[in-house]
Amino acid sequence: MAKQYDVAVIGAGAAGMMCAAVAAQRGKRVMLIDHAEKLAEKIRISGGGRCNFTNINAAPQHFLSENPHFCKSALSRYTAQDFLALVKKYRIAHHEKHRGQLFCDESSEQIIAMLKSECEKGGVNWRMPCKVESVSKVEEGFVVATDHGEIEASSVVIATGGLSIPKIGATDLGYRIATQFGLPLVEPRPGLVPLTFDGPSWAPFVPLAGIALEVEVSTGSGKGKNAKKGHFREDLLFTHRGLSGPAILQISSYWQPGTPIVLNLLPEMDVAEELIAGKTTIKKQLGNVLAGWLPARLVDGLLLANGFAPDARLADMPDAKLRKLGDAINRWAIVPTGSEGYRKAEVTLGGVDTRALSQQTMMAKDVPGLYFIGETVDVTGWLGGYNFQWAWASGFVAGQSV
Ligand code: FDA
């Protein structure tokens, strides 16, 4: 028997709207369902309201997954250039901010309006706000039970995103449906998130909130295929609860609880060598020397944390102590207490295990007609427009296949 719809897409965010538009423009009868009052809140708040909608350098190495090759197919079939072409077609003024990151000049609302218009072009049907209660398999299709009645569809696409920012509507529905249909999950955890620190060793850095500087940061271990190592050179920001800024958001996705992150606060300089070489010629206090290279308040914190008197003179310092201080600046290993969690995380790592999905179509290998796209899936991008590119690409390939 013919179903009411060819496709029901659950979640009208970045991936869901892209998928619905592509499927509808292929002539499919599409129903797009979302429980939120306001459309695509995450796109609206993204990029500080200007939506970093893609990264022109997006490539598989910018994504984390237990199955790192999975994202290649979708990313190559729908590229950053493809999305950019759509943005240009809608005459949305944009600019490159930093390392390939493309932002709207005016507002992220323009991206939402563009996707809505692409959905309208194909005649997508909307049910919003509408709460999804369950999804069940019936002969040749699915029934989606909602608080506005049942929807029958030949295929169902789950595009409900991750757990980040629950106050704007994030839920675990995608994971629950995956589990219901027997798909494994890679344990979800917050990514692109500020890290928190406390205890006596952090006390000297508590007053530094607001200080920002460019650093190198790294974490992780392992070799070859199983390596989970991150290394970034970006800005670091001291906060009231610990550390944030792009450097920390990036490294947070690689960080494992209980392990250290390693900061190089002066990547251009071997601090110990410079200090030892300066001992005979520089007649200043150690703090004043360092304040020529680092913010003065940070220098105070570093001297205190490493047991140096504030008025210590460089010329009086034994080389061994200067080496220790050099290490504390060039190789500062600190163990975060935790992270600010889903309340502040820009993304959710983990999700539906991609080994259970087709990389060409995003369909569950063992459940014909059931698709998972976007952040619900265990593919997570770096900071910088990569996560939207994954949403567009995975939404596109599913939209072509349903
Ligand atoms: P998304 O979260 O976009 O959509 C999921 C949809 O499903 C929502 O509309 C939600 O209401 C709906 N839903 C959830 N549960 C449901 C249920 N039970 N029933 C019905 N509907 C349900 N990325 C980037 O590339 N550039 C950037 O500039 C930013 N900036 C940014 C800022 C902030 C503050 C955050 C939190 C995140 C970003 N991101 C980002 C990440 C990016 O927003 C994110 O990766 C994508 O929106 C993911 O797209 P999805 O479509 O998968 O989920």
Describe this entry's structure for a reader.
It contains twelve helices and 21 strands. The model has no long low-confidence stretch (mean pLDDT 96). It is 29% helix and 25% strand. By secondary structure, the protein is an alpha+beta fold. The protein has two domains: 5-190 and 347-401, FAD/NAD(P)-binding domain, CATH 3.50.50; 195-339, Translation factors (Elongation Factor Tu (Ef-tu), domain 3), CATH 2.40.30.10. The strands form five sheets. Strands 1, 2, 7, 8, 9, 10 and 20 form a seven-stranded mixed sheet that branches. A seven-stranded antiparallel sheet has the order 17-16-13-14-15-12-18. A three-stranded antiparallel sheet has the order 3-6-5. The longest helix has 16 residues, at 386-401. The protein has helices at 14-25, 41-45, 71-77, 80-89, 109-122, 173-180, 246-252, 271-278, 286-291, 296-305, 319-330, 386-401; strands at 5-10, 30-33, 52-55, 63-64, 94-96, 101-104, 125-127, 132-138, 141-146, 149-158, 185-191, 195-196, 212-221, 228-238, 242-244, 261-264, 332-334, 338-339, 347-352, 370-372, 380-381. It is elongated. It starts with a strand and ends with a helix. A hairpin with a 4-residue loop joins strand 5 and strand 6 (101-104). Residues 10-16, 33-36, 40, 42, 45-47, 51-52, 132, 159-161, 164-165, 169, 171, 173, 346-347, 374-375, 385-388, 391 line the site of dihydroflavine-adenine dinucleotide (FDA).
